[in-house]
Design a protein that fits this description.
Blueprint lengths: L2 H19 L5 H18 L14 E2 L10 E7 L17 H9 L1 E7 L5 H10 L3 H4 L18 H7 L3 E5 L14 E3 L8 H15 L4 E6 L21 H4 L10 H30 L6 E7 L14 H4 E7 L7 E3 L3 E2 L3 H8 L4 E2 L8 H4 L10 E7 L5 E8 L3 E6 L14 H7 L1 H5 L3 E5 L17 H17 L7 H34 L9 H12 L3
Helix pairs in contact: 1-2, 2-16, 2-17, 7-9, 16-17
């Protein structure tokens, strides 16, 4: 945001405040004041602007890859964990993804930046951590990354690729992603035949032109759908599914949720089979780079919206037939590495100062030094889930730092907070420091923070985590920003929820030819007034 825009916002706020104090404020004025307060709050606290190392991002040239890739297909699953046959899990039927893994490079230790949809996807598309690009929470609830950042779509489009989106984007501002072709409906991406038809249409319209297709599949996201158009063929029962080890509790309800989740994974594989078959039928296998991953772990206890392994570790499969030999990599890789990878393979300029690095050397089977630690984070999900955390793991140990002793966090459906505390009391209370030995305790149940024999390990990880936060200019290092984020963040997001719900009702009424509502409920208006009148 420019200085002039900020001055204009401040002046508008001053006028609205004067009207409010004189008792002249209208409903529209109260809502406008709320919107201004929200916008100014985030920017005054540097949560979206100056603290980003890429605030004035520049483009630099990079040595081109030997042969630029002609077509790029990036496929995301929604809330998929490591429950695939190619990763050793036998409770699902995933022959198509297993075959993709066998034909390409399988990364065994790949991580998202944050176990929440919008922050994770914003990192994938910008190559920046959430606290750098500003997408700290869910896009449809008011959170947005900083406008104007270079992103994968804008950069590949400049390089001459025809760009397409199928399924959700879930990152704001949506207008910063200049797709040539968009089919954004979510539900069809659970129907194998619908996905196949959408892909066929995009490929047919692209002709022989180089393309980048961003295909976003909704499975296995909640609500878990056990059958869509007769898919999947294999459906699991609660007795067959049991519960996943990281969940830490076994109840009838959780067994049913697990069965439903794994059934959705089976359908996801059937959808992938159709997509890969379309590439074969059109003779595009050899010239197309295929990348498959998830945006975060499953929405099951101790998975999504946590910094635990089950929330942040995701499958990552990469295939370029004829260029990359099949293999398995054990390096710690992050989704911030994918933007520089795509651009390197496309012989496209790469933005300067990105925290990630190209995976091309690993894809080519090279050995050599790589990162020894990997960081993840969590800020917020929806207004009731504000729990800023920072985490760092090395080859064996992981440190999780919770920035609040009493986070405003509700755990996923199917497990109450009280029940969760019986399983993991430290995390349930939001203990300041957690330390896990991922070799002996891969599910992270035993907090070793403060253990005398691990004092040096804990100190080293703590030191390296702080160094990472300084290098990436984490705005929550500033206690004032942290207080503002917690004090105002929930109210700001809640305000956006109220306004978005009003806009939704107005749009539904307009389409139905009904009178358009122009008021919020008395309770909602009270929340707006309370937030509007708050002064820092």
């Amino acid at each position: 945001m420019s200085d002039a825009a900020m001055v204009a916002m401040q002046e508008a706020r001053k006028v609205l405040l004067e009207e409010k104090q004189k008792g002249l404020a209208t409903r529209e004025g109260a809502i406008a004041l709320t919107q201004l307060e929200t916008a100014i709050l985030w920017r005054e606290n540097d949560l979206l602007t100056q603290n980003s190392p890429n605030a004035d991002i520049a483009i630099k040239s990079q040595d081109p890859a030997p042969d630029a890739v002609k077509h790029l297909l990036l496929i995301t699953a929604d809330d998929l964990g490591m429950q695939l046959g190619c990763y050793g899990y036998r409770g699902v039927t995933t022959p198509n993804l297993d075959r993709l893994a066998g034909e390409g490079v399988r990364f065994n230790r790949a991580y998202v930046t944050a176990a929440s949809c919008s922050p994770s996807r914003a990192s994938l598309l910008t190559g920046l951590y959430p606290h750098q690009n500003g997408q700290l929470g869910l896009a449809h609830l008011g959170s947005s990354m900083r406008p104007g950042l270079p992103n994968l779509i804008s950069l590949l489009k400049k390089r001459g690729y025809r760009t397409g989106q199928i399924g959700k984007l879930h990152v704001e501002p949506e207008g910063d992603f200049p797709f040539d072709d968009k089919k954004i409906d979510i539900e069809p991406t659970r129907d194998p035949q619908a996905v196949r038809s959408l892909c066929e249409r995009f490929l047919r319209d692209s002709g022989d032109h180089p393309f980048f297709l961003y295909l976003n599949l909704f499975d296995p996201h909640k609500p878990f759908a056990r059958d869509i158009a007769g898919s999947p063929k294999v459906k699991l029962s609660p007795a067959q599914a049991g519960v996943l080890p990281f969940m830490g509790q076994d109840t009838k309800e959780l067994r049913q949720e697990t069965a439903d989740y794994l059934t959705c994974v089976n359908r996801l594989d059937e959808i992938m089979g159709g997509v890969l078959e379309v590439l074969r039928e059109r003779g595009l296998e050899k010239g197309t780079l295929v990348v498959f991953l998830s945006d975060n772990g499953p929405e099951l206890p101790r998975g999504k919206v946590t910094c635990f392994e089950a929330g942040t570790q995701v499958p990552l499969l990469v295939r370029w037939t004829g260029r990359f030999r099949p293999g398995v990599r054990e390096e710690l890789v992050s989704t911030i590495d994918l933007l520089p990878t795509f651009l390197a393979l496309a012989n496209a300029p790469v933005p300067a100062g990105l925290p990630g690095r190209s995976l091309v050397p690993l894809l080519e089977g090279q050995a050599g030094p790589w990162r020894e630690t990997l960081a993840t984070e969590f800020n917020s999900h929806e207004p009731r889930m504000i729990n800023p955390q920072r985490a760092l793991r090395d080859g064996r140990y992981k440190l999780i730092l919770t920035l609040l002793k009493d986070p405003a966090l509700n755990w996923p459906d199917g497990l109450t907070l009280e029940s969760y505390r019986k399983i993991q009391p430290e995390a349930g209370r939001g203990e300041f420091v957690e330390l896990y030995d991922l070799e002996s305790d891969p599910e992270e149940f035993k907090n070793l923070a403060g253990t005398p024999g691990l004092k040096e390990v804990e100190a080293r990880l703590r030191r390296e985590l702080e160094e990472w936060r300084r290098e990436t200019k984490d705005p929550l290092l500033d206690p004032g920003n942290l207080r503002a984020f917690i004090r105002e963040g929930g109210q700001a997001l809640e305000t956006q929820v109220i306004l978005k719900e009003l806009h939704r009702k107005q749009e539904e009424a307009r389409k139905a030819g009904q009178p358009i509502p122009n008021t919020v409920t008395p309770a909602e208006m009270e929340k707006l007034r309370s937030f509007s009148s708050h002064k820092k």
